[in-house]
Specification:
- By secondary structure, the protein is mostly helical.
- The chain is 73% helix and 0% strand.
- It has a single domain, classed as Four Helix Bundle (Hemerythrin (Met), subunit A) (Up-down Bundle).
Length: 143
Amino acid sequence: MAVFTWNDKFSVSVESMDKQHKYFLDLLNNLNDQIQQKYDDETVTVAIHKLFNYAAFHFRDEENILNTTGFTGLKEQHREHGFFMEQVNEMEESLKHGDRVQLGSVVSFLKDWFMNHIMSEDKKYAAYLKIRYASESLTLDAD
């Protein structure tokens, strides 16, 4: 059961970033399904690790685009991304040590952080890019 469904209001108007955000949601929904179906700790840990690795990939791409375009909020994005990675890493470590208490809050944290991050921080660069590239066809991709 999907805990989070993509809505066009989450779009940042950069196709590669929207695709990555959608894939992240797929990973999050998959993790939720595994938790709800009471998969073993190892399976859940692998799903969290996959989400962690994908987030790191996505954050690098996003920060590369923002750096290339001169977005002045890059430091705040980097700080937010670092906080997220620390939290997910702590969750992963807790699971490795058999702490199932946090499983119920894992998906809730990830969903809330993701939604709030897109709607506050990512929307800032979406507005910036829209203004900066208003006269150009905006097709940014990270190198």
